[in-house]
Amino acid sequence: MAVKIRLARRGRKQKAIYDIVIADARAPRDGRFIEKIGSYNPGTNPSSVVLDTAKAVDWLLKGAQPTDTARSILHHEGVMLRKHLQVGVIKGAIGQDVADARFEEWKSSKTDRNVSAADTLTQKLDTAKQAKLDAERKVNESRAEAIAKKNAPVVVEEEVAAEEVSDEVATDETAADAPVAEDTNEAPAAE
Prior knowledge:
Structural class: alpha+beta
Number of strands: 5
Strand order of the largest sheet: 4-3-2-1-5
Shape: elongated
């Protein structure tokens, strides 16, 4: 019987969650399985994996073959490294304490990388949010200017009309003064 480590789909439409299971290769994807060793949710950012690494390593040592996606998840969680180190211990190439120390070293560096990746993701999201706010602020300012411009011509026309009235009054006054001066100048010339 060929045993596979694979994903079994569950969850609702467009919101898939997968169980990481040990199953017979001939069983359907969502059908019978031997043991459930974890779950995988690709819908979160970053995707979340809950995995019993001891059971996964045990099944790998027994000969279970992971599918491509399952292998990727196991590799990301360090199960494949742990299996590799355990094979070295079984063959006598390294001691158990050395294997555990190497795994803990890898695990700490992985944690540091995950924290830095989470920080960069948070910074990226913050900058994107700030850029959206700035763009929205510019749009709001342009709308406010457009509204002010739309309302301003009415006020400007009244001011222009008031200026025209004052210009007309000034013109009437100068026109009234000018003919009088002309009449005065013409009157002595006519006499």
